[in-house]
Amino acid sequence: xxxxxxxxxxxxxxxxxxxxxxxxxxxxxxxxxxxxxxxxxxxxxxxxxxxxxxxxxxxxxxxxxxxxxxxxxxxxxxxxxxxxxxxxxxxxxxxxxxxxxxxxxxxxxxxxxxxxxxxxxxxxxxxxxxxxxxxxxxxxxxxxxxxxxxxxxxxxxxxxxxxxxxxxxxxxxxxxxxxxxxxxxxxxxxxxxxxxxxxxxxxxxxxxxxxxxxxxxxxxxxxxxxxxxxxxxxxxxxxxxxxxxxxxxxxxxxxxxxxxxxxxxxxxxxxxxxxxxxxxxxxxxxxxxxxxxxxx
Length: 296
Ligand SMILES: Cc1cc2nc3c(=O)[nH]c(=O)nc-3n(C[C@H](O)[C@H](O)[C@H](O)COP(=O)(O)OP(=O)(O)OC[C@H]3O[C@@H](n4cnc5c(N)ncnc54)[C@H](O)[C@@H]3O)c2cc1C
Prior knowledge:
Layout (H helix, E strand, L loop, with lengths): L9 E8 L11 E8 L2 H13 L4 E4 L5 E3 L4 E7 L7 E4 L2 E5 L4 H10 L2 E2 L11 H7 L2 E2 L2 E2 H4 E7 L5 E5 L18 E8 L1 E2 L2 H18 L19 H7 L6 E2 L2 E3 L7 E3 L5 H19 L8 E3 L2
Parallel strand pairs: 2-5, 3-5, 4-18
Antiparallel strand pairs: 1-2, 6-7, 7-13, 8-14, 9-10, 11-12, 11-13, 15-16, 16-17
The structure holds flavin-adenine dinucleotide (FAD).
């Protein structure tokens, strides 16, 4: 693929190793990686890509993806830190898709608005959190979203209400239709800054205690199977600390597949398959991946 993007539309990198851009620190080269300047640049880039029949993939902060070792033969459009405006109107905050969830929750706290405490520490972007209906500690994106601004396949900006987003467990309509999240309106409640900050500290401490934050990963690798916990099934299968080539299961939290030692994407994907097989053999439960895979 020989395709160029005008660098007036954003930061453009060619043959860019995706392991430098993903939280798992694995993945081959993207032919093109572009970080658009703003919404209109994003639309221009998408038009170019589609006119030329080029594959593209939208990323937020790449904390829930594995890019395969052969890379991506197309254009990866990364939004983190790009469409990242934060505005407030009464109890409603608008956050652009590229803002991080921690930035949005900090902004809510500065404005004495509660409801987004759960999101402090989720390393993804607003866009990724909408797509995945990200959640933690009894909080969930769908509980605080009022409506979402989206770009549809005709390059029109539309809005969908929370009900129209079809939020479910780690799911939203964006996974089923050709939509790009531009930003989200969060409806929050007046609260006390100090209490909100205490919640942040409590959740940060719990993450620090329970999660292997010192090793590259994409967080919980598997969805929670109905009636079970993925981490417990993996632990009960004797896989705590299991190592496969450069990857393996965290010693600290069995729900996390981690990059232990310069893993390749194949090491990670093989680890996932081994774990799925062992758990299926032991308990008859099929672990579904939460993490998305990019590449052929
Ligand atoms: C240490 C660690 C802890 C984590 N803890 C949690 C947790 O507590 N709770 C939780 O839910 N998740 C957690 N995660 C997983 C991850 O952070 C979330 O899934 C997050 O919502 C992903 O956001 P992202 O911006 O990184 O998305 P990406 O990984 O960049 O993308 C994920 C998916 O969303 C799509 N996407 C991203 N942005 C857009 C957009 N603007 N428009 C359309 N599609 C888009 C991508 O195409 C992809 O399919 C954790 C991850 C790590 C590494």
